[in-house]
Amino acid sequence: MSDEQRSPAGPEPGGAASGGAASGGAASGGPHRHGPERDGPEPEPIRFFGATWLHHDGGYGLRRAGVAVGSLALAATGAVVLRFAFQGLEIADVGPFVGILVVAGFAICSALAFRRTWDGFVRRRDPAAESAADRSAQSLMFIGFIGSLLAYFCRSLVEAPGERLHRAEYVAARDRYERRRGARTGNPAARKSRPKRRR
Fold first, then answer.
1. Which helix (H) or strand (E) is 101 found in, with range?
2. Per-residue CA distances from 110 to 10, 74, 113, 153, 194 (Å)
């Protein structure tokens, strides 16, 4: 009777019953809605991939190919547009010094945008410094958009961009959830798994 009274409480905060739907993981309709991972934390969706990165299903391979081809095509289109802009500077006869400055500026911004986008795939940024850094980096990311697109292309050749980071965080969250679940004395599963002492 006591177990039946406790069962509607569901998993701890952050699980599928309390926080999974609010976090958006359940809305993606990924494979985590069934099987042993139904309880506990939900996998965080990734842009263009949803939660398909968890089990590599739901068109995961096609999505990776689409992201790779799309980002490379957009980067090539951006390079063509920049080439036309540079030709406009040559027609305007602004001088070689200005042309070198423009090319160097785009190259530096693209490299910095590539690095910033790539770092976002492998580590979380500090939320305290995020707001100020984002405001200062918005113009840089806009100018160096080709670098960001190339970062998406290169990363999608290996995995879904950000998959390794999301998987590590998800595994850590699952481990914490299982430890908390096993530590609860009112959990029937914990009581069954706990060995009885015999005297």
1. helix 96-122
2. 48, 14, 5, 14, 57
Listing DSSP states for 4-38 in one string gives: HHHGGG-SPTTSIIIIIHHHTTGGGT-GGGSGGGG
Residue 84: exposure state from Cβ atoms within 10 A (0-12, 13-18, ≥19): exposed
35-46: pLDDT as tens digits: 445 577 888 999
Degrees (nearest 5) of the Cα angle 34, 35, 41? 75
Task: Please give the DSSP secondary-structure letter assigned to residue 54.
Answer: T
pLDDT in tens, 56-105: 999 999 999 999 999 999 999 999 999 888 888 888 877 788 888 888 98
Compute the 3-state secondary structure of the chain and give helix, strand, coil in percent, each to the nearest 5: 70, 0, 30
Q: Give the Cβ contact number of residue 136 at 10 Å.
A: 9
User: pTM for the full model?
Assistant: 0.67
